[in-house]
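Before drawing any conclusions, I looked closely at one protein's amino acid sequence and its backbone structure tokens, quoted below without any editing.
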Amino acid sequence: MAQTIAVLDFGSQYTQIIARRIRECSVFSKIYHYSTPAETLKAEGVVGIVLSGGPSSVFSKKAPMPDPKVFELGIPVLGICYGIQLMGHLLGGEVAKGERREYGNGTLTIQKPGRLFAKLPKKLKVWNSHGDKVIALPPGFEAIGTTENSPFAAIEDRKRRFFGIQFHPEVFHSERGIDVIKNFLVGVCEASQDWTTEDFIEKSTEEIRRVVGKSRVLLGLSGGVDSSVAAALIHKAIGRQLTCVFVDNGLLRKGEREAVVSLYERNFKIDLRVVDASQLFLRRLKGVSEPEQKRKIIGNTFVEVFEKSLRQVGAAEFLAQGTLYPDVIESVAIGGNPAALIKSHHNVGGLPAKMKLKLLEPLRELFKDEVRAVGSALGLPREVVWRQPFPGPGLGVRVVGEITKDRLEVLRSADAIVQEEMMSTGWYWKVWQSFAVFLPVKSVGVIGDERNYADVIALRIVESKDAMTADWTKLPYEIVQTISSRITNEVRGVSRVVMDVSSKPPATIEWE
């Protein structure tokens, strides 16, 4: 077994990113509940501990606290955000609420590089998200970095190999953050870098065989990278015991159904069935505007359709899905940790409480770029592995407000233009996601010499690495102009095109 770095989860939206960043450094990581006893960590051979961030304040009566003995194990500890506040609070320092919240981009000035900041520039752009901060150091600690709002943004107890940082090195927008993490893993914990994607595939296939046994598995195949990689991984493990079902829910993009069927007929030898349930989905969504209600209706109907598919496929015990960690962390608290609900995903928080099928989700702890690495290792074609993400609820979360056939048709036509232009210019492969959103408002326009009171389309084009944080893409103006011009000229019923220039956070990538 590879050496293990324990990530104690205090409910942060970024906890799994920390674990993933560690794996990017070829070091095995495992997420533990924040209250895991120190003896358990010791017994499992943990060589380093990371205390995650979290939504709580150390001053709260219900603030999650670790076993104090984790600081007595004699192994390195890195506290991030809430983690540094815990160290200050529990080890004899002082924590207070900041005069102002430090949120978003900031500048870290490194005073003493040491092992944590070895070979890094003196100043780094970092990502902050906190209200409390350390105002007095615990005994044995010294400040090694500052930000505009915190004189103790990075601290170190060299003798005990304890470190605390107020910023988030794990997110994509922290400059050289991966190097900070690597310095902790290799320079401080002296961890061996021997964890690979192939290890994940081997471990997962063994686990799938163990859990499934001789049972049959149904998989919801959308044609996207998540469900495709899940299908390839499960097929590698159990072969003909897997049947894939593609559900046309009436919320697909233009030509999606035909493209997916054609793709899988050309590239895979998997039992694929197609179910047209579009009328059922649209009937149940009629008159529904509230996003959470839409997601839950789609999730419940999705599973119901699968259960009915049993009659055609034959007895099956498992429903497999390409659920990823961003879906999970936004939908439910993991392992009883104090995480906040962001929104329900059709394949997680939107599932009914009682199902006839057991869930099989082999990618549940991975992020999109990790899934793509697994897909490449399994030999999937580029057009599948690098396809842009498409939400499980489909256009249901891109039609803001009530879903109607007319609105879907307008959106499909507008989105097809976005995809065509992004593909033809090569920008499709450079961004994380690019799509159109139908807004439930009308705007005055002019066609010829006549007044035109019609619909509004928003463009959402973002850059990201893992979908946990994202920034809007500064697309060349001529491409934006072409997309806008084509939509307003070619899509009947659209008078205006607007651009979404929000980052995540505070916005999410999808509008609903």
